[in-house]
Amino acid sequence: MKQPIRVGIVHDYQLFSDVVTTLLHQEEEITLIGDIALDFDGMVPRGDSMPFDVVLIDATMARMNAVHATREIKRASPAVQVIALGVESCEEDMLQLIEAGASGYILKNASYAELLHTIKAVHQGLTPCSPRLAALVFTKIAALTREQSQFPPLHPVNLTRRECEVLQLMALRYRNGEIARQLDVALDTVKRHVANIFKKFQVHSRRAVIQKAHEHGMLMETGGTPLVGIADPSVGDRVASYGGYHHGRTRNLQQN
């Protein structure tokens, strides 16, 4: 026997929930699991505590934004399909919901039959939308593609752990002598590391090095406070293991 579609409702208007619940209770293919509690500190239950296949969101909620609610639900349970109900006939609003993770929407003037069709469609992995909205989605994708193509590809830059330490201090405007004292190494050693950093980034100035390092996402957010301490043995590990992504690229640091 085919399992019914488990449906939940996010709302802040009880009459809305009661009407939708009464109608859907008549459908053998659908099981109403209940409401999602609107706890706006955590917003929605996390992990496996959301036992829904499809969640209906009241797009007219006064207490919170439906786009934010959709994003939080998808973050908590990516497999849940979200449908926004009562959406204004505005393609930009619909596009925001889709970008947040919604799989479907129901306009304010839509019928109950359209609601049923949309629930069943998104449960099957489909995304019903108007031709105008489909065109808007493709236009958005094309614009993002053009925007990304304007950025030249970033080639990986592999720095040793010590070079990473020097790079961080260079970004904090430390001179070579200050870097040597900070790391408790010889000045000639610092000069050699700086020269290697220039060579690996294929630049000839500190300004260019810092710019390239920013583009590669290789600099920590320091807020003006140095993250590297004098002769601190853990500093290299902190810098070299600093992870993250920049323009979808992973920074590779060679431990040395």
What does it look like?
It is built from ten helices and seven strands. It has helices spanning 14-24, 66-76, 91-100, 112-123, 131-149, 161-171, 176-183, 187-201, 206-215, 235-240; strands at residues 5-10, 30-35, 54-58, 81-87, 104-107, 245-246, 249-250. It has a five-stranded parallel β-sheet with strand order 2-1-3-4-5, with helices on both faces. The protein has a two-stranded antiparallel ribbon with strand order 6-7. The N and C termini lie far apart (60 Å). 26% of the residues are buried.
SSE ordering = EHEEHEHEHHHHHHHEE
Low-confidence stretches: 222-256
Second CATH tier, the architecture of the largest domain? 3-Layer(aba) Sandwich
Q: How far apart are the first and last residues' alpha carbons, in Å? A: 60 Å
The number of domains is 2
Report helical residue fraction: 40-55%
Characteristics of this structure?
256 residues, alpha/beta, Rossmann fold, 2 domains, two-stranded antiparallel ribbon, elongated
What's a quick, concise take on this entry?
It contains 10 helices and 7 strands. The strands form 2 sheets. A 5-stranded parallel beta sheet has the order 2-1-3-4-5, with helices on both faces. The longest helix is centred in the middle third of the chain and has 19 residues.
Write the layout of secondary structure elements.
Blueprint: E1 5-10, H1 14-24, E2 30-35, E3 54-58, H2 66-76, E4 81-87, H3 91-100, E5 104-107, H4 112-123, H5 131-149, H6 161-171, H7 176-183, H8 187-201, H9 206-215, H10 235-240, E6 245-246, E7 249-250
Parallel strand pairs: 1-2, 1-3, 3-4, 4-5
Antiparallel strand pairs: 6-7
Helix pairs in contact: 3-5, 6-8, 7-8
